[in-house]
Write a structure and sequence with these properties.
single chain, 2 domains, 6-stranded parallel sheet, globular
């Protein structure tokens, strides 16, 4: 099954640890040729919405193909494409978990996504078999109009990526003369502005007594031209296996997100990087703060770019003194074994 982010894959193993039969459905499905041809007759944005609407309808119809199940787990969906999906899931009649990936955040900044959010709340009230899954923390950190009622909410930590592990075992430390690799990893988009981050890292490497190297991991076919002028090692992360190799090379991941898109939203890159043992320095938004600090601290959060050099210093000291010990403990609360009981019994 194709999923929107690698760290969600372990959730497919929930049935191995769960007493109930759960089926999984995802938006990431192959599109028929006739639909692809039809969507290309329209401008790109219109064609994109046609393809997304088809995916949502197809996901709702797939829910009827499962036999002898207790519940359905929906990996992702878009607020603005719920018109047919929700009636289909309600009609199916099974306990259904709808995972939220920034759906409430997007409703704050888009009228059509807000209308989809209201539509979802109506269905949650009318059909109590429908539930939403919030990642990391409750939604009491956002305005009340964008929250969901308690009766329909489940909380889940973003799971680890189990196929990667920290390089250092418990109690193991880096050698004194080893270069600290500071990384910026992921798709470079407008909601992930990195120019200021790169400036701070480069200045730190120039001024610091620590031996450090800057690594940038991104799909090189889509990289901005200005990256060629940055003094760094550029690594291609187009393929998932290359993306994971890059994360395993890095000691410190520094990442910043736009507040309008990530104030109440989890980061898949942070989850993957922490799974690989990276110490994290990230934007100080509520969900991301929880990712970095729960159940144990694996990094720092910043609210001002000027804090970054000092936080790098503190992180290097943490690496020298504690290695990746906290990362092994951090992983335990985010394994599929720890998550599976959340979905074992219907909330009363």
């Amino acid at each position: 099954m194709q999923l929107m982010h690698p760290c969600l894959k372990d959730l497919l193993l929930i049935p191995e640890y769960n007493q109930s039969a759960i089926a999984f459905i995802s938006l990431e499905t192959e599109l028929p040729n006739w639909l692809l041809k039809l969507s290309k007759l329209f401008p790109y944005q219109i064609g994109l919405q046609i393809r997304r609407e088809y995916r949502h309808i197809a996901m709702g119809l797939r829910a009827f193909k499962f036999k002898d199940i207790d519940s359905i787990f929906v990996f992702e969906f878009y607020n603005q494409h719920c018109l047919f999906l929700l009636p289909l899931l309600a009609l199916r009649g099974k306990l259904t978990f709808l995972t939220l990936h920034g759906n409430q955040q997007f409703a704050m900044n888009s009228k059509i996504k807000y209308l989809g959010f209201i539509y979802l709340k109506i269905y949650l009230e009318l059909f109590r078999n429908l539930k939403v899954v919030l990642l990391e923390i409750d939604d009491d950190v956002i305005p009340e109009k964008y929250r969901f009622p308690d009766y329909c909410k489940y909380l889940m930590p973003l799971p680890i990526l189990s196929e990667v592990t920290p390089r250092l075992k418990l109690g193991e430390r880096l050698s004194e003369n080893e270069t600290i690799k500071i990384g910026v990893v992921g798709m470079i988009r407008p909601d992930k502005p990195i120019a200021l981050i790169l400036d701070k890292i480069q200045q730190y490497i120039t001024d610091s007594d620590h031996q450090c190297e800057l690594i940038i991991g991104t799909p090189l076919g889509q990289k901005p031209a200005y990256l060629d002028e940055v003094k760094a090692t550029l690594l291609d992360t187009t393929k998932e296996e290359d993306y994971l190799k890059v994360l395993q090379q890095i000691d410190i991941l520094i990442i910043h997100y736009d507040q309008e898109r990530y104030f109440y939203r989890a980061s898949g890159v942070i989850s993957d990087a922490a799974s690989a043992g990276c110490h994290i320095i990230a934007s100080d938004y509520p969900v991301i703060h929880h990712q970095v600090n729960h159940p144990v601290k694996i990094g720092y959060n910043f609210s001002d770019f000027a804090q970054i050099p000092k936080l790098i210093d503190q992180t290097i000291e943490d690496i020298k003194n504690h290695g990746q010990d906290n990362h092994w403990q951090w992983r335990e609360a985010r394994t599929v074994r720890a998550i599976a009981p959340i979905f074992d019994v219907e909330k009363k």
